[in-house]
Amino acid sequence: MSDRARRGRPGHDQQTVLRVAIELFNRQGYDATSMGDLARELGLTKSAIYHHVPSKESLLERALDEALDELSAALDRVQADTDATPAQRLRLAVRTSVVVLAEHLPAVTLLLRVRGNTPAEKNALSRRRDIDHRLAEMVREAAAAGEIRTDVDPLLASRLLFGTVNSMTEWLRGDVDVERLADAVATLAFDGLLRRE
Question: Boundaries of each HTH tetR-type domain copy (predicted)?
């Protein structure tokens, strides 16, 4: 093996470093996790970790962007579906949110735990508020179209719907049939638990 083939840091790419960082941030808390903790978890020296990432906050920002970018893109696709009624789009937004959460569970879990203590967290909270407003607007549109009940405030309805989705970060573990889970959440949210005769 030549010297050229041996150069560089062994064993870890940026994505691996990010995955391990997200897991540590979720387990220990962002503030309580040091770059030294991350280096130890990866089996690197503290100085070697900076070959992969410039700072701890850059890792946090990338992790939060992963969750927010996926959710924003999913909502863009839902809202672009002009063939669907407002209620169908809202139902699809709930369903799609479940899929994003399940497929990006560690990053979404981290997103839901941020409190605005850093610039990255403040930016993430601002982006979350924008998403909340988009979802509330989808509820308003469905209510205005007469497709869903109008006696519940749209922002409250949106928070209850997506609070249900977000609560899955507390119990969702292991292998799960994501499509089946998304269908179940959408069915309960829109059709309820009562049997229809």
Answer: 11-71
